[in-house]
Design goal:
Strands 4-3-5-2-1-6-10-11-9 form a nine-stranded mixed sheet, sandwiched between helices. The chain has one domain: Acetylglutamate kinase-like (Carbamate kinase), CATH 3.40.1160.10. Helix 1 crosses helix 3 and helix 5 packs parallel to helix 7. It is built from eight helices and eleven strands.
Length: 236
């Protein structure tokens, strides 16, 4: 029996990137789709928010004097491209998938409508939310927290390439301390690089637990869904 009925899976744009860390690698999309299908087969309702860092990094534009709002709008479009690529992989894996965007691009995707998204999930569809919150100055982590709260998700699962939250980069510091559990204020006060402060505060204010795990390790997602101890759980 699964511990969670409805989840929001937060992916970075780099999850779709090839070895160089840039672009969209169809094999990576298929890899993620296969993992999503395995938990979907456990009758879990799945929503996804994906970043756009594999296609565009707004910070690069800002270094050259680009307007912040413009840079962020370009990032929103990058997330839509990633959402469409992931939808294609999920459909080919046999999962009915819908993309909803926070800005209207009706030729490519549905506009975000909260109740429609919930109905899709209840029907067993996978729903991918693109274009962040639709506003500049907000990260896709914040979009993930916001959408998770709006759809009444049981948990937000943040997929990374490390197995948990550490007090420093474990790849650079072999003595980095690993956390199995944290509360929201620990993350904020210790300035742990899990999600930005707005995202963590949104989760805290709405009592939404966050689980940080390594998506690329074998079976971690299934283990999390079944309630086994993996990664770092952030909650009250």
């Amino acid at each position: 029996m699964t511990k969670y009925k409805r989840i929001l899976l937060k992916l970075s744009g780099e999850a779709l990137a090839g070895p160089g860390g840039f672009g969209i690698d169809p094999e990576q999309a298929d890899f993620i789709a296969a993992k999503v299908k395995r938990i979907h087969d456990l009758e879990v309702e799945i929503a996804i928010v994906i970043g756009g860092g594999n296609l565009w990094r707004g910070t690069d534009g800002l270094k050259h004097g680009m307007d912040r709002a413009t840079a962020d709008q370009m990032g929103m479009l990058a997330t839509v491209m990633n959402a469409l690529a992931l939808r294609d992989a999920l459909e080919r894996a046999g999962l009915t998938t819908r993309v909803q965007t926070a800005v209207e691009i009706r030729q490519f995707a549905e506009p975000y409508i909260r109740l429609r998204a919930i109905r899709h999930l209840e029907k067993g569809y996978v729903v991918i939310f693109g274009a962040g919150t639709g506003n500049p100055y907000f990260t896709t982590d914040t979009a993930g927290a916001l959408r998770a709260v709006e759809i009444n998700a049981d948990i937000l699962i943040k997929a990374t390439k490390v197995d948990a939250v550490y007090d420093s980069d474990p790849l650079l510091n072999p003595n980095a301390k690993r956390f199995e559990k944290l509360n929201y204020l620990d993350v904020i006060n210790k300035r742990l690089k899990v999600m930005d402060a707005t995202a963590i505060t949104t989760c805290m204010d709405n009592d939404l637990p966050v689980l940080v795990l390594n998506l690329w390790a074998n079976d971690t997602l299934e283990q999390a869904i079944l309630g086994e101890k993996v990664g770092t759980l952030i909650s009250d």
